[in-house]
Amino acid sequence: MSRLAWIRLAIVLIALPLASCFNDETTCPTCPPDNSGRIDVLLTQNSPVDSLHVTIDSGQPVTLKRGGRTSFRDLSAGSHSFIVVRFYNDFGFVFSRTTTLAVRLAQGETRVIVLHNEFPLVADASRPGWRHTGRANA
User: Fold this and answer.
1) Counting CB atoms within 10 angstroms of each CB, which of 46, 51, 116, 122 has the fewest?
2) For strand 37-43 and strand 110-115, is the pairing parallel, antiparallel, or unpaired?
3) What is the mean pLDDT of the segment spanning 108-116?
4) What are the C-alpha distances in Å from 84 to residues 18, 73, 100, 102?
C-alpha cells in the first residue's frame, strides 16, 4: 500500500469512533451516562455556621454539622434548586438564614457548594480535561 492509503486508513480508523458519539441511535462509550451528575455540600470546620439543612429539588432535607460533607449523586443534567438553611448559635440565641441556589449541571459534571463564611460558594469540581458548558448561579 502506498503511504497515502495508510494515512487515509488511519484517518478513517480515528474518525469512526468519534463520529459514533454524534449518532443518536447508538450509545457512546466515551460519553458520561445519563443521571451521572453530582453536587457535594461542604461546611468548613472554621465556619461561623453551626449546622445547616440542605434540600435539593424539594426532596428530604439533609442535616450537616460543622466540618461535615454530603453528596447528592445520580443527578440529571440541567438546573437543580437548593434550599440551604444555616443555623447560628450566638451567645445562646439560635437564629437561621435561608438561601436558595440554582445550580446547573452538565451530564457527568460535579459541583461543590462550600459554606465558609456568610455566603455559599459554588465551585467546579469536574474531572481534569473534561469540558462542559454548565454554569452555576449563586
Assistant:
1) 46
2) parallel
3) 85
4) 41, 17, 6, 11
Query: What residues contact residue 133 under an 8 Å CB cut-off, 6+ apart?
Result: 106
Coil, helix or strand for 24?
coil
Q: Is 15 helix (H, G, I), strand (E, B) or coil?
A: helix
Provide the pLDDT for residue 1: 59
The sign of the CA dihedral 64, 40, 99, 75 is negative
Look at residues 53, 122, 60 and name the one whose alpha carbon lies nearest to residue 86.
53
Q: Reduce the DSSP state of residue 19 to 3 states and report it.
A: helix
List C-alpha distances in Å: 21 to 16, 26, 28, 31, 107: 9, 8, 5, 7, 14
Where does residue 62 rank: exposed (0-12), middle (13-18), buried (19+ CB within 10 A)?
middle
Confidence (pLDDT) at 72: 93
Helix (H, G, I), strand (E, B) or coil at 128: coil
pLDDT of residue 137: 39
Q: Which residues sit opposite 111 in a β-bridge?
A: 39, 124
What is the DSSP secondary-structure string of 32-80?
PPTT-EEEEEEE-TT-S--EEEEEETT---EEEETT-EEEEEEEPSEEE
